[in-house]
Design goal:
15 strands, alpha+beta, 26% helix
Length: 296
């Protein structure tokens, strides 16, 4: 099954393992669910336990989808007495320009943010993504958010879990849920070269920069590289030189990335608030799976 295909399949995540729901299945009952604001701890726990990108982004606002009817005594996270079955995260992108280019009239990091994670449980019926994202954006509007930019990665990301299961994104994504929300497609982000770790995950440039400068999270980053088989860094050793040698030691590879699909959405509780989101890039036709294959 191809994730993100243009024929109606939506991808879900549980324990980092993908499953799919087809829009033709239907069955989503909005009366059963509620979207609420979340503290960082439960949102982070849910994303790290279920999303294929287990890393936690630089989050500003976090929202959860609660199942008001599901039993809570069979495992899973419980928030306000109900089972947490989805999380939407709005946060800070890797560069300020990602926001100012998309929304030149909005204040970055306050009025404009990146929708960096959308993760729903397989238990949620088909078409639940639109409800969860729309509810999250309504709540975000109350915090002054007027526009979000979000990306869909068309490149496959696979890794093998200790129990032998394969996790990740087997064929990449087109951003079908954003198309369902009538988001504006503005093309691809810039092509770039990325570092792919042996476990199939991409090493973010932000993480590399933080490690080299010794910023917050550098120790956790170093432990992750060592856990993949690198020798421990000697005390006082140059961080940049050690990282270069460590990545070679563990077999990390450099891969050319064609750029992610970029979508933008106005946010607001009414037309006046939504009108604040003036798009800085022209709207383009939505990508289809064949188009993506031709550009990779």
């Amino acid at each position: 099954m191809a994730a993100g295909r243009a024929d109606g399949w939506a991808q879900r995540w549980s324990g980092g393992v993908p499953t799919w729901r087809h829009t033709s299945q239907g069955g989503f009952d909005r009366r059963r669910y509620e979207v609420v604001e979340l503290a960082e701890a439960p949102a982070r726990e849910y994303i790290q336990a279920n999303h294929y990108l287990a890393g936690w982004p630089a989050a500003v606002h976090r929202f959860g989808l609660l199942d008001l009817q599901a039993a809570t005594g069979e495992g899973g996270q419980v928030v306000d007495g109900h089972l947490l079955v989805g999380v939407v995260v709005l946060g800070v992108p890797m560069s300020r320009r990602a926001l100012t280019r998309a929304f030149p009239s909005l204040e970055p990091y306050r009025e404009a943010l990146e929708m960096s994670r959308v993760c729903l449980s397989p238990s949620v019926a088909s078409n639940g993504e639109s409800f969860a994202v729309a509810g999250a954006l309504r709540l975000a509007a109350g915090h002054g958010v007027r526009g979000v930019v979000t990306y869909a990665d068309p490149v496959a990301r696979l890794r093998t879990l200790p129990d032998g299961r394969t996790t990740g994104s087997p064929r990449g994504h087109l951003g079908i849920i954003y198309q369902a929300l009538s988001a504006v497609y503005t093309g691809r982000s810039a092509a770039r070269t990325v570092t792919v770790l042996p476990d199939g995950q991409v090493l973010p440039a932000r993480s590399i920069a933080k490690f080299v400068t010794g910023d917050r999270g550098a120790d956790g980053f170093e432990r992750r590289i060592v856990a993949l088989g690198a020798s421990e860094r000697p005390a006082g050793a140059d961080r940049r030189a050690w990282l270069a040698a460590a990545l070679e030691q563990i077999g990390a590879r450099r891969q050319r990335h064609p750029g992610t699909h970029r979508y933008v959405l106005p946010v607001g509780r009414n037309r006046v608030e939504r009108s604040r989101a003036v798009f800085g890039m022209p709207a383009l036709p939505y990508p289809k799976w064949a188009d993506t294959q031709n550009h990779q």
